[in-house]
Automatic annotation (TrEMBL):
Name this polypeptide is given: Pirin family protein
Gene Ontology molecular function terms on file: metal ion binding
InterPro entries referenced in this protein's UniProt entry, alphabetically: Pirin, Pirin_C_dom, Pirin_N_dom, RmlC-like_jellyroll, RmlC_Cupin_sf
Record Gene3D superfamilies: Jelly Rolls
Keyword Iron attributed: yes
Record's cofactor remark: Binds 1 Fe cation per subunit.
Signal peptide extent: none
Compositionally biased region (Basic residues): 291-302
Renumbered residue ranges of the record's region Disordered: 272-302
Binding site for Fe cation: 51, 53, 95, 97
Keyword Lipid metabolism applies: no
Length: 302
């Protein structure tokens, strides 16, 4: 199943444009992955002022450009290509992300991982940066394991459910096969170049959903080196209510999070240093009851 992205603004008034593939009306999650934005490649400024999160982990994965991250647990770091920024919200955290340089060339991914219900309510807000991630080298393909485990290579990043995220770099005109866990569902996004993935021609921007029951994945690059991102995980068991920057289990979860972010002197999300009083205010809630996102089609099983 090929999923088309949609073009959306990121970061409020001074928004840059991003290509969003998850959540999709046909498919809300791949494993615990519940959100996938691709930004760039473009010369632009990323200015995402302090904003809140609940019920998730953020995964920032730059391919080009450097991003300055600050959050309400005191982190103040720069993430560079090949490095991972992983932030766990638990019941609440706030952060900002601002690119370095004037209209730099930016390209990368911003992903969310839904936390299981117990972790969403009880995990301590936290941040970790990994600057030396493990790699798996196959015949014609190199995999950087960002989170989880692939072919016996395991990332040090903290996870709360069985999960996989990996960048795959495939040499031009080369084919490769990677072993997968059949109990995981998987999806693949091309970042640069073009390739046939499981026999399906894939170009940048489209997300190919592969379903479960697949023990291996075949890749074949065309006439240029190709970079892909592989998502996987056990199908997520919970129905999620997602709105703005919040992931919850009910309409009431979202309403409470929004009200707290808008409350003067709030403590739930903390304060992001270095921005004065600048922040992104929560938009108005829609005039309806928020309901869980559910799959509209039966996912392919292979």
């Amino acid at each position: 199943m090929l999923l088309q992205p949609r073009d959306v603004p990121l970061g409020g008034i001074r928004a840059m444009r991003v290509s969003r593939t998850l959540p999709h009306r046909e498919l809300p999650t791949v494993g615990a992955w519940c959100f996938l934005d691709q930004f760039g490649p473009q010369h632009t400024d990323m200015v995402v002022l302090p904003h809140p999160h609940t019920g998730l982990q953020t995964v920032t994965w730059p391919v080009q450009g450097e991003i300055h991250h600050r959050d309400s647990v005191g982190s103040d770091v720069v993430v560079k290509p090949g490095q991972l920024n992983l932030m766990t919200s638990g019941p609440g955290i706030a952060h900002s992300e601002i690119s370095l340089g004037e209209a730099p060339l930016l390209h990368g991914l911003q992903l969310w991982v839904a936390l299981p219900e117990a972790a969403a309510g009880n995990a301590a807000p936290a941040f970790e940066q990994h600057t030396d991630l493990p790699e798996y080298d196959g015949d014609g393909v190199r995999a950087t394991v960002v989170v989880g485990e692939l072919a016996g290579t395991t990332s040090p990043a903290t996870t709360y459910s069985p999960l996989l995220g990996a960048q795959l770099d495939l040499e031009r005109q080369r084919a490769a096969t990677i072993a997968l866990r059949p109990d995981f569902e998987h999806a693949v996004l091309v970042l640069t170049g073009r390739a046939a993935v499981a026999g399906t021609p894939l170009e940048p921007g489209l997300l190919l959903y592969l379903g479960t029951g697949r023990a291996e994945l075949t890749l074949a690059a065309e006439d240029e080196d190709t970079t892909l991102f592989l998502l996987g995980g056990e199908p997520f068991p919970d129905d999620l209510v997602m709105w703005w920057n919040f992931v919850g289990r009910s309409h009431e979860d979202i309403v409470a999070a929004r009200e707290e972010w808008e409350r003067p002197g709030q403590e739930r999300f903390g304060i992001v240093a270095g921005h004065g009083g600048d922040r992104i205010p929560a938009p108005p809630l829609p005039p309806l009851r928020l309901t869980p996102r559910r799959r509209r089609t039966t996912p392919p099983a292979n």
